[in-house]
UniProtKB/TrEMBL annotation:
This is Threonine/serine exporter family protein. The keyword Membrane applies. Residues 13-258 form the Threonine/serine exporter-like N-terminal domain. The chain crosses the membrane at residues 146-165, 172-192, 204-223, 235-259. InterPro entries: ThrE-like_N, ThrE_Dicarb/AminoAcid_Exp. Keywords: Cell membrane, Membrane, Transmembrane, Transmembrane helix. It comes from the Bacteria. Belongs to the ThrE exporter (TC 2.A.79) family. It is found in: Cell membrane. The keyword Transmembrane applies. It is a multi-pass membrane protein.
Length: 268
């Protein structure tokens, strides 16, 4: 395999792994995808090491020259959840391995996957945030007012997080803001409901609204990576989940404590 093709193959495989890792894929899945892509183009030696913040890949051809060895490192600075992109890269990987797809076409396909537009902000907020929060409120024993309150609070939380993400706001501070917004909206809705003599459980509204921010994928991947023996990735993802949960709690606690200090928590 000529040098330019070896280099381009590795870049393509690294790009596929980057897309997966940035969108919530497990460590083992990223490593397996990179390895399969490279070995499908006759690399006898492929070694991929993936952590939540970086990808390390080395490939080698049969030969005595050190020029045969190619190594790349990719730093991952931002992560999110878009399992549609993970599924699309999985499908691409299968097509690439089972065919003689040109490298230029493969790179173009990966770029198209990377540029896939997510659901619109309104759909994400109303369906992803509002309905999720509302049904979680029912799950925790809420009534119809709590259902509607959690729907409104969850939608506003997702709108807030989406707008903060566009400005590359630090994730820790974003989750603090999200928790603060959930508590603030719940308190305002409690005040409005008291004016019309409707019983609204603020605790359930807040719980339903913040459930849309709970790092479920991070927790699942932490357990999955730890079971698979990827201890570094497992600990890193577990730490990420703890930090997210802590930031949410800080945001909610700050608003509730502030309300208690200012007005004695009279609406609670």
């Amino acid at each position: 395999m000529v040098s330019v093709n070896r280099k381009k193959t590795l870049i393509m495989a690294l790009y596929a792994g980057e897309i997966m890792l940035k969108n919530g894929a497990e460590t083992y899945r990223v490593e397996d995808t990179i390895t399969r892509l490279c070995k499908s183009r006759n690399f006898p030696y492929v070694e991929a090491y993936v952590t939540p913040t970086g990808i390390f890949v080395s490939v080698d051809s049969k030969g005595e020259s050190q020029d045969e060895i190619v190594t790349y490192i990719k730093r991952i600075k931002s992560r999110g959840i878009n399992l549609n992109k993970v599924a699309e890269v999985n499908n691409f990987s299968r097509r690439f391995v089972e065919s003689n797809m040109p490298l230029d076409e493969a790179l173009a396909t990966l770029k198209a996957i990377d540029n896939l537009k997510p659901f619109s902000q309104h759909v994400d907020a109303l369906l992803g945030g509002g309905l999720s929060g509302a049904f979680f409120a029912l799950l925790f024993g809420g009534n119809l007012p709590a259902f509607l309150g959690a729907f409104i609070a969850g939608s506003i939380v997702i709108y807030t997080l989406s707008n903060l993400a566009k400005t590359e706001f630090p994730p820790f501070l974003s989750n603090i803001c999200g928790g603060s917004v959930a508590a603030l909206v719940a308190i305002i809705l409690s005040y409005i409901s008291s004016l019309i003599n409707v019983n609204l459980d603020v605790d359930i509204v807040i719980t339903g609204a913040i459930m849309v921010m709970v790092p479920g994928v991070a927790i699942t991947n932490a357990v999955r990576d730890s079971i698979a023996g990827d201890l570094v990735s497992g600990l890193a993802r577990a730490a990420e989940a703890v930090i997210i949960a802590t930031s949410i709690a800080v945001g909610v606690g700050f608003i509730l404590k502030l309300w208690q200090i200012v007005l004695g928590g009279s609406l609670l």
